Amino acid sequence: MAMTKSQRQLNFSIFRYLVLTFWLFIVAFPIFWMVGTSFKPDIEWFAWPPVYITENGTLQNYLVVWADASEYSESVHTQSLQRPWEALGNSTLISLISTTLAVLFGSVLAYGVSRYQILSEGRMFQLLMLRMVPPIVLIAPISIWYRALDLLDSVPGLVMLYFITTLPYAVWMSKSFIDEVPREMEQAAEILGASKWQTIWEVVLPLVRSGLVATFLFILILTWSEYLMALLLSKTNVVTLPIELSKYQGSTEGRVYGRQAALSVGITLPLILVGIIIRKHLVRGFSFGMVRR
Amino acid sequence: MSQIELKNLRKEFGSLVAVNNLNLTIEDGEFIVFVGPSGCGKTTTLRMIAGFEDPTSGDITIDGKVVNELEPRDRDLGMVFQSHALFPHKNVADNIAFGLRMKKVKQDEQARKVKEVSELVRITHLLGKMPGQCSGGESQRIALARTLVTEPSNFLLDEPLSSLDAKLRRELRAECDRLHDELQKTFIYVTHDQEEAMTLADRIVVMNQGKIVQMGSPLEIYGDPVSYFVADFFGNPAMNLVEGEFVSGDSGLQFKSPQFTIPLPSKYSQKQPGKGTLGIRPENVTIGATDAAASINREVELVEPLGKDTLLYFETGAERPFVAVIEGTQSVERHANVDVGFPDDAIFLFDETGARIR
Ligand SMILES: Nc1ncnc2c1ncn2[C@@H]1O[C@H](COP(=O)(O)OP(=O)(O)OP(=O)(O)O)[C@@H](O)[C@H]1O
Ligand SMILES: [Mg+2]
């Protein structure tokens, strides 16, 4: 017997909720566990059966990590190497500068590609393909040059590294937004008397702003959480948050999961904060349909 | 005064010749309409005049000055795009004021002009809205206002009404006409709607495959088409075109199609026999008692009363049915046999290449 239309709709919405629930579970569970663990006392980190919601909530992990309250710590591990605030500062500085540079240069390049065909679509793709080379294999040449240029283990070194490695993404992503702005819109401005700069400032930029903000956040996340290259090109002088995170495993007592979780929450919060501040742009930017015609 | 001249204007895209050595002089204040089938190079020509496309060769002059090297904004032109191209992030008033702002017109002057022009195209009630909240016809007027307000000497309009429904299109067409009368500026208007061309133009330029096929007043184009192509393009319902052969008969040249043979007017008696097409406009076909030299007896396949007129359809072996328009709602029955007459001066002949035989 054929299903009626309303039955089909019901089945579909059941299916949809199943898929969404499953997806939500996969995405949200690790985050839930991270936040949960950050409030658990030591004994509950590994407990079996697992403690889903702790009844002995404590801020100790946060205090140890962020306030250096080692006197409250029951576990014995060296604090001297851990500098979370410094790492936070470094990460903020490096990510913001390199992401800003990447989006700035990337969007200008993208405008050229989109409007003046300075690169064909094929070339564009090749450009992005270059980025598919695993970063780690480039470490040797980069290390050699960084040593020669005295950029190893320095803020400018990492800024430049991230700028270069994220630039193709910035070009690619912002190009997709610029392509959305009809050429006729620009030409209309031009024939009404606007100069090239006025056209870009008055017409193009307002229309791609949301897209550029989305691009910015995307690259910020990439940079903010980059670990591998930071591990190899810096370490002692300039520590970023992902590197800092890796330090929270003592050699004697194993991984200190609660501390790590507390630091992780600290790493995640700024991104969420940025996301909230720019959420108006994100919805429009990530939906790619910001030009109404 | 502002005269636009196109001299041997040519545009190639790779191996494709979009505009093929166009020569045209557009007089000050003229309403000129480019018509032609899709892809014949109308938009490309307009964009070259505007300066968005560089000619491959040839010159564009405005008032005798070659403007090939001039930026679009320095050409004293206004353009209304087919897509309207309103700025979606600015409200209607700001859209209209944009050109004035770019030309550094004073604030109070801007406001005055925006008000004036929006009264002219009747959109004062829309000024506070965003373009996204306006209908197609409203957007069209806004686009027009945005261009009008900068008071260019020449207007370029690229199929400005193509996206509208029939009624709105007629309304705005009338509005374009009124504006042209009022402003006395040059209008260059692109369309592939023959009716729009007929009603608006001082002069029609018919294009095909990058070339000008014919230009002239609407009546010239309609009454004296130079080719099969032009004859077929103008008129609604379209001209009846029957393929066949010109053969010599007892009393001069005759037209012979698979289904009928008629004698041709004596002025054609000296023409060469051969394959060709006979054309006659539906409104020139006579039905019933006729003094036309040539007539055929045919069964009416279909009667279509339109109120003021009635369309009669016949089968003559052509691709399209043969149509006759008769006035009023005369009582011609379906399946009745009637005499279909071809008055001498209503007959058009075209040779095998489509060129007119005169
Ligand atoms: N930028 C371009 N690159 C390559 N070919 C083009 C370009 N612009 C137009 N053409 C080609 O040039 C020819 C003329 O195009 P054009 O847009 O002038 O036609 P049109 O008469 O305006 O047609 P329509 O009535 O469909 O708008 C077409 O064959 C088109 O494919
Ligand atoms: Mg066109």
Explain briefly what this protein structure is.
With 293 residues, chain A is mostly helical. Chain A is 70% helix and 1% strand.
* Structural class determined from secondary elements of chain A: mainly alpha
The percent range for strand residues of chain A is under 5%
Under CATH at level 1, the class of the largest domain in chain A stands as Mainly Alpha
Number of strands of chain B: 22
In DSSP terms (H or I, runs of 4 or more residues), the helix count of chain B works out at 8
Strand order of the largest sheet of chain A: 1-2
Strand runs of chain A, count = 2
* CATH fold category name of the largest domain in chain A: MetI-like fold
* Helix percent band of chain A: 55-70%
Radius of gyration of chain B: 24 Å
Give the domain tally of chain A: 2
User: Which protein chains make the most extensive interface, counting residues with beta carbons within 8 Å of the other chain's beta carbons?
Assistant: A-B, 20 and 26 residues
For the biggest sheet of chain B, the summary is:
6 strands, mixed
What is the spatial order of strands in the main beta sheet of chain B?
Answer: 6-7-8-3-9-10
The helix/strand series of chain B, from N terminus to C terminus, equals: EEEHEEEHHHEHEHEEHHEEEEEEEEEEEE
The number of helices of chain A is 13
Structural commentary:
The complex is a heterodimer of chains A (about 290) and B (about 350). Chain A has helices spanning about 5-40, 40-45, 60-65, 85-115, 120-130, 140-150, 155-180, 185-190, 195-225, 230-235, 240-245, 255-275, 280-285, and strands at about 250, 255. Chain A has about 290 residues and is mainly alpha-helical. Chain A folds into 2 domains: about 5-70, no CATH class; about 85-285, MetI-like (MetI-like fold), CATH 1.10.3720. In chain A, strands 1-2 form a two-stranded antiparallel sheet. In chain A, a hairpin with a 3-residue loop joins strand 1 (about 250) and strand 2. Chain A is globular, with a radius of gyration of 24 Å. The two termini of chain A are about 45 Å apart. Residues about 290-293 of chain A have low confidence and may be disordered. The model of chain B has no long low-confidence stretch (mean pLDDT about 90). The two termini of chain B are about 40 Å apart. Chain B has about 350 residues and is an alpha+beta fold. Chain B folds into 2 domains: about 5-225, Rossmann fold (3-Layer(aba) Sandwich); about 235-355, OB fold (Dihydrolipoamide Acetyltransferase, E2P), CATH 2.40.50. In chain B, about 25% of the residues lie in helices and about 35% in strands. In chain B, strands 6-7-8-3-9-10 form a 6-stranded mixed β-sheet, with helices on both faces. In chain B, strands 13-12-11-14-21-22 form a 6-stranded antiparallel β-sheet. Chain B has a 4-stranded antiparallel β-sheet with strand order 2-1-4-5, covered by helices on one side. The longest helix of chain B is centred in the middle third of the chain and has 18 residues, at about 165-185. Chain B has 8 helices and 22 strands. Classes of the chains: A mainly alpha (about 290), B alpha+beta (about 350). The interface of A and B includes residues 189, 198 and 202 of A. Adenosine-5'-triphosphate binds next to strand 2 and helix 1 of chain B. Adenosine-5'-triphosphate binds near residues 13, 16, 18 and 36 of chain B.
